[in-house]
Amino acid sequence: MKNFKRYLCKCDDAWMACAYEAEKGCIGVEYGSERKQIFHYVFKGSAKVSKLFDGNPKIIDGSKGKLIDCKDLYGFDTVFEFLEDTEMWGFNVLDGNTNWDAKIVTESKLTITGKSALVCLGGTPTVNGKELVKHDYVDLSNGDYTIDLKTNGILLLFTKT
Amino acid sequence: MRTIFKIGRYNENTNSISVKFCRLHSTKSIDDYSSKLVSCDDLNVSSCESFVKSLMEKSGSRRITSEEEGEPILDSNKSEIITGNLNINDLVGKVIEANVEVIDPRNRFMLSMRKVEL
After folding, report:
1. How far is residue A85's CA from residue A75's CA, in Å, rounded to a whole number?
2. In whole angstroms, what is the distance from residue B24 CA to residue A158 CA?
């Protein structure tokens, strides 16, 4: 039996985080009622993913742009086949509103003008001088923020549109 | 959790049983629990194993859970739920509720995300 684990955490009334750890060859199924992810971040590995019986799978591959928009699968019965040992993190919406933008932060300054969440997925970046570590998140209110990614910081910014 | 049941009566005319359920390690006798009438029409009676499994799936597990939740809680066991930043020293001496549903049979676990205030 190959190992496929899912991890979940409700972070806010509007969104929750999830993570997958799967061994190469695992098959995963998610019911549409539970399929709330709209973005994936791939730490390592790759997976073939598709709507159930869709016949049109796509490859989620960490080496080709790590933050992946998967809104097309929102609310659908979804099947994964993990092509390698894979670790992924996911951003899920809880209120049915998939109108969020996401990006990997590269700037040293952010100006926030709407509901936003900043998630650290690696390294020890700082936001307004406060150090974050993997799986820390900040609910950002409107204003300017100073970012220091240091050498290895991974920060994702999610903004409701 | 290991569970037990005891059939008090079988009514062949209606194909139903009067049955009591409880945990094996209950501090009360199974005879002190109330009976429930369960129809055997929906149960798998092809073998003892399938009968036990289908009885527990249909009625037993839910019954034991609801009975357990209706049990009084000892004053010394009254608990609190903790959230947020952890300081183990603050927890010493407290009775803390552990929600076992954070781990479910579909290999889902709690992801440890931490909210940071700037």
Report:
1. 26
2. 50
Nearest CA in chain B to A129: B118
pLDDT tens-digit map of A29-68: 999 998 999 999 999 999 999 999 998 999 988 766 579 9
Q: Are strands A116-122 and B3-11 parallel, antiparallel or unpaired?
A: unpaired
Q: What's the ipTM? A: 0.91
pTM for the full predicted model: 0.68
- DSSP for B54-92 reads HHIIIIIHHHHHHHHHHSPPPGGG--B---SS--HHHHT
- Is A9 in Cβ contact with B112 (below 8 Å)? yes
How far away is chain B from the Cα of A19, in angstroms, using its nearest Cα?
7
- Mutating which of A3, A5, A7, A15 best tests the B interface, going by the most B Cβ atoms within 10 A? A7
Interface contact flag, B116 A6, Cβ < 8 Å: no
Could you give the CA distance from residue A9 to residue B44 in angstroms, rounded to a whole number? Answer: 38
Number of C-beta neighbours around residue A122 at 10 A: 16
Give the DSSP H/E element, type plus range, for residue B35. none
